[in-house]
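[09:14] KT: can someone run the structure on this one? pasting the chain below
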Amino acid sequence: MSNLAVPLSPVYINSPEKLARGAAEWAAAPALAIDTESNSLHSYSERTALIQISTRQRDYLVDPLALTDLSLLAPPLADPAIEKVFHAAENDILGLKRDFGFQVYNVFDTMWASRILGIPRIGLADLLREHFGVTADKRMQRYDWNTRPLDPAALTYAVEDTHYLLALRDILYDQLVAADRWEEARQEFERLGRVTPTLRTFDSEGFWRVKGVYDIQPRERAILRELYRFRDDQARENDRPPFKVLADSLLIELSKAQPRTVDELRRSQILTPYLLRRFGRGIVEAVRAGLEAPIPQRPRDHDRPDDVILERFETLRAWRKSTGAARGVDPDVVLSNAALWTLARQAPQTPEALAALDVMSEYKLGVYGQGILALLGGNGTTDKSKAKADAR
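[09:31] RB: done, C-alpha cells below
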C-alpha cells in the first residue's frame, strides 16, 4: 500500500501541538519517507530549514525555524522497527545529526538502491518521472528555504520529494531481491546510518583551491590569500556563502590588478557599483596587506604515494573498472576511491587483515575479498599476472 492516492496536501507542522500529533503518527508507522532542505546556497553555515516526512497515509512538512524543540522526532528516527526511506540519504542524515543530534537507524536509500541495480539515471526527478509521470519544478532547486512563508510552488516541490518515496522503495526493493542484490544494499544502508558530521572550519590556506591560483604570479598569490580571508570574514559576518560575496574569478582578477586605492579599484571596473560600495575599502586593505605579506609557499603533498603504492592502486582500479562493467554498475559502487587507496597503502595479506581495515562491508568481503588478496599478493607488491587475469 502506498500514499499515491493521497492528494498533495501536507500537514504543515509549526507548533509543539502539531508536532506532538505528528510524532504520535510517525511512531506508529512501519516506514517513513524523509527528506530535508537546507539553506546552504544562501547562508554561511549550512542548517536544515525544512524536514519532509511521509507515511503511507499522509504527508508532513516540519518547520525547524518555527520550532525550538524537535526532540519528539528523535524516537521514530532511532527506532529500528521503523524503516526510514531517503533518496541520497547521506547529506540528510548528516544534517539531522549535526543540527539536532538525531540518530537514524534502519535506512533505505533509493539512490543507492538504484546504483546497486545499475539503473543509469538515478536522480530523484528522473525516477519520479519514469515510475510516476511526475515532473519536478526545476526552478525550486536553488530556492532559499529560509524564506517564510514558503512559496506554494516550493511547498509542492518539497512534498513531492517524499510523497512518492515509499512507493519507489517498494519497486526498488523487489528489483533488489530479484537481482540477488538485497544483502549488498542492506549493508550499504547500514553504513549510511553510521555517517558522522564534521564541524566546518575555515581553512585560510584554501585559496590554493581557487581556480587559476597556479596561473598567477607569487606576489599575486599573497594578495589572493588576503582577499580570500577578507571574503570569508565578510561572508561570516553577513551570513552568506562566500561565493555569493565575491566569486573566485573576481578574487583572481583583483589579485592581478592590485588596486591600492578605492579610486584605482573603481577605474579597474572589476566590481559592480554595489560591490564597490560594499567591499571596496576592505578589498583595498587586503591588497595592501598582500603586497607586504610573505609569499605563500606552494603546499607539498607529503602523502604522495610511492611507486609501489601507485602500482597497486592502478591495478585495483583496473580490477574495479572491469568488475563494475561486468555487473553493469559504476566502479565506485564496487569500492570507493578511498577504499582503493587504503588497500593500496596497507596491502593486507590475509582475510583477517583485510577485514580489519574496515573499508568493505561483510558482503563485499565475501564477494571480492579473495580476489583483492590475490591482487595484493607477493611480498606486499602487486602480482601483475594475477591482476591482469582478474581484470579480464
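[09:33] KT: thanks! The domain at 206-292 is CATH 1.10.150.80 (DNA polymerase; domain 1).
[09:34] RB: yep, looked fine to me
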